[in-house]
């Protein structure tokens, strides 16, 4: 029983430290690092999109080789640790992993296109808006609480705005339903 109360006290200390840390100011190098992380994730997403589009259009179709290369590249990223000098090698491995992952997503995207092509545009737009919003939040936030709260709020608001704009042209029932639920929740608050 004593270990359970010690674990609970440890959890309380960590939770209180997290809450207290939200008000701390982030140093400029921390904000720059966060922005770089989101930009690298955005570049990996773009690499994945290029791989998927090339597979969809039939220019490059690596098939099983892409899946095996994805596995090899992700293991390479795990075992080839960062030593400060191999940044570009690891970045290239990440971009290649994104490309090969896109190649393996091609058949799934062909199936989705046969159902409703606007699903892909909606997913891509939401991803891009989220990455851009979080990167801007990391660059502009001076305090931790605004980074966590602002990043989330800006991502949701931007995604909903873009989805509403696309909904004017594509008339998606799902987007209308999500917008209605969002409006209901906001009116409750």
From TrEMBL:
Q: Which GO terms describe its cellular component?
A: mitochondrial membrane
Q: From the UniProt record, which GO molecular function terms apply?
A: enzyme binding
**InterPro entries from the UniProt entry:** Bax_inhibitor_1-related (IPR006214)
**Membrane topology reported for the UniProt record:** Multi-pass membrane protein
Q: Which residues form a coiled coil?
A: none
Q: Which UniProt keywords apply?
A: Membrane, Transmembrane, Transmembrane helix
Q: Where in the cell is it found?
A: Membrane
A Gene Ontology BP annotation from the UniProt entry: cellular response to unfolded protein
Record carries keyword Transmembrane: yes
Listed transmembrane segments: 37-56, 62-80, 92-113, 119-140, 147-170
Q: Tell me the protein family, please.
A: Belongs to the BI1 family.
Name of protein: (Mediterranean fruit fly) hypothetical protein
Record organism: Ceratitis capitata
